[in-house]
């Protein structure tokens, strides 16, 4: 009787130990797999998060990734969440913004690949050519510091104005205009109101994200800015995540044939500027 009880207890104990070991091992393995295949994306208003959802996410999902999205009303809040680890990735900022955030907020964010970017453009509902410009015509540009300087550089690019030689290209204002041969009335305005005012303007420089969200007809665009490297949008992560497999797979997804084919089909009038690095 004692021998039977002893044998039964030994067998039961062995079973418990075996089950516990296999359960712990199985649970850890499943958890690791789940964690490595989940990407939490912070989204902001504008074209770049939408492009990710429609063109990049399907490529990642084919590889078994599960994507979840958290919407933020502005980019700074999205960056704070990314820096604190509440999300893993966002795709709505250029490297100049990343550098400014890291400096001002003590951040640790890095870009892992340049991504398609919508350049600022010069639009008009009333004129069909840059050659139509006449003395004293009204030209609207964005009033926020970054887009104001970019708008002025676009006007300089097309030969309508020149900027002072010592003007800071990142912070130039209308006070930095050295010459304005046509005496254009250059009016800084809130970016969001410019598309609604196009019918009352001769020309307007509209940031890419604003023209996209406002659904401005791309056929009205007469010129585009030349994007400097620091204004190319970046897929952005915390520095410690840069070498992780999922981050590398995000880069591969942006360079994949599936995504580039999708982009080519949805890039009327070269609306998106596509970095050459993505096509290598």
The fold-level CATH name of the largest domain is D-Maltodextrin-Binding Protein, domain 2
Number of helices: 8
What is the H level of CATH, i.e. the homologous superfamily of the largest domain? Answer: Periplasmic binding protein-like II
Distance between the termini: 77 Å
- Structural class given helices, strands, pairing? alpha/beta
CATH class descriptor name of the largest domain:
Alpha Beta
Strand content: 15-25%
**Domains, number:** 2
Order of helices and strands: HEHEHEHEEEHEEEEHEEHH
* Uncertain spans: 1-33
Question: What's the rounded overall pLDDT mean?
Answer: 88
The gross shape turns out to be: globular
**Second CATH tier, the architecture of the largest domain:** 3-Layer(aba) Sandwich
For the sheet with most strands, the description reads: 5 strands, mixed
Roughly how many Å is the radius of gyration? 26 Å
Number of strands: 12
Write out the strand line-up for the largest beta sheet, numbering strands in chain order. 9-6-10-5-11
Question: In percent, how helical is the residue content?
Answer: 25-40%
């Amino acid at each position: 009787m004692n021998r039977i009880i002893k044998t039964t207890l030994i067998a039961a104990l062995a079973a418990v130990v075996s089950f516990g070991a296999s359960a712990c091992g199985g649970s850890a393995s499943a958890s690791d797999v789940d964690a490595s295949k989940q990407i939490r994306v912070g989204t902001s208003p504008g074209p770049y998060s939408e492009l990710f959802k429609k063109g990049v996410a399907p490529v990642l999902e084919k590889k078994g990734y599960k994507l979840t999205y958290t919407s933020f009303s502005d980019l700074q809040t999205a960056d704070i969440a990314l820096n604190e680890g509440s999300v893993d990735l966002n795709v709505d900022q250029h490297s100049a913004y990343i550098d400014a955030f890291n400096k001002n907020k003590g951040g640790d964010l890095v870009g892992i690949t340049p991504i398609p970017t919508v350049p600022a453009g010069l639009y008009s509902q009333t004129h069909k050519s840059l050659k139509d410009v006449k003395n004293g015509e009204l030209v609207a540009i964005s009033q926020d510091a970054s887009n104001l300087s970019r708008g002025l550089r676009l006007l300089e690019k097309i030969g309508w104005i020149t900027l002072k030689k010592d003007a800071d290209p990142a912070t130039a204002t209308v006070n930095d205009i050295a010459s304005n041969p046509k005496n254009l009335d250059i009016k800084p305005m809130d970016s969001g109101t410019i598309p609604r005012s196009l019918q009352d303007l001769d020309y307007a420089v509209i940031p890419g994200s604003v023209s996209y969200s406002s659904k401005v007809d791309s056929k009205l665009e007469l010129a585009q800015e030349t994007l400097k490297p620091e204004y190319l949008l970046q897929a952005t992560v915390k520095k410690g995540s840069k070498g992780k497999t999922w981050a590398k797979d995000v880069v591969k997804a942006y360079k994949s044939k599936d995504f580039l084919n999708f982009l080519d089909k949805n890039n009327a009038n070269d609306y998106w500027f596509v970095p050459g690095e993505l096509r290598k």
